[in-house]
Amino acid sequence: MEDLELFLVDSLKALSFQGHCQNQDNLSRALDAGIECPDIREVVHWLAHELHILRKTDERVTNKEFNKEFSFELSLLLTELGCPYRDLVQGAIEERFKSRMSLVQLLEYLTSELMTTKMVLKAQPVGPPCKRSKMDTNVQQVVENLAKDLQLAEVPKNINTKMLFEKISPRLEQAIKQTNPQVLSEPLLKLKKPLTDAQWQVLETLHRELEAEYNLRRQMMSTRLEATVQSFQWSESMRQRSNEIMDRFNRKMRELEQFTVGGKQTDLVALLAARSDLAIIEKTSSANVRKIRLPNTKACDWSGTRSRRQGQ
């Protein structure tokens, strides 16, 4: 543990942190005091602020005061950064940073993440962005799968992606024309001619914004779900089952981790292949959703029923 604390002190000095925890003895005493210690919160707030600026994160730690808001904001930031320590991003918020070990893990992760971020930014080349998209790595596989779907002959191994796509384009256009419009609607992105390099860069920027929107909405829904589950434990009758509830919740959250990013469902190829019906959004509270259609039935002759009752 002392070696790890020494590593943390060296890391803080390398990151140019100015504070009491630059000294190993001060850091050790602060860790013993826990998250309520102002010195620990000062380090955490500084590291979180630096990461927020350099990584341009949506979440941030806004203050250094010890309260639930501090722990909540820190948890959101760690989740956005992809912190691998489950105890720091799952479970009851008030328990996440309570132990000495959790604080050591927190500082170790934040310092390592900040150092890595600075090294990556420093290593990035200065100059115009590369014209080739990093998101096109699976284009070759997509085009080959398309050729198989069109039942074309075996693809030659010495043909590049561009030539292959030009070869299958006429067959693809013919297949689209023969498809029922109700099955395959018009493309969402109508291209009258090939995109220029500048237009490709604009499209990539649009895709990154859509991907960020997806990730933000997913994180928001995940946070709302976590807050809802924790609210179930407020009642006296459910506090005894707190561990059981969180255990089941954490198992479900692990199943949802595969949807952290959209993957092939939201990559650049999926954006180009999107159809116009994808832009149609119907509110869940719209009149069409609330409308209930009943079958035509003949009205009952209640008058005859009343007359029979009166005759009895």
UniProtKB/TrEMBL annotation:
GO terms for cellular component: tRNA-splicing ligase complex. InterPro entries: FAM98. Belongs to the FAM98 family. This is GD21242. The lineage of its organism: Eukaryota, Metazoa, Ecdysozoa, Arthropoda, Hexapoda. The gene is Dsim\GD21242.
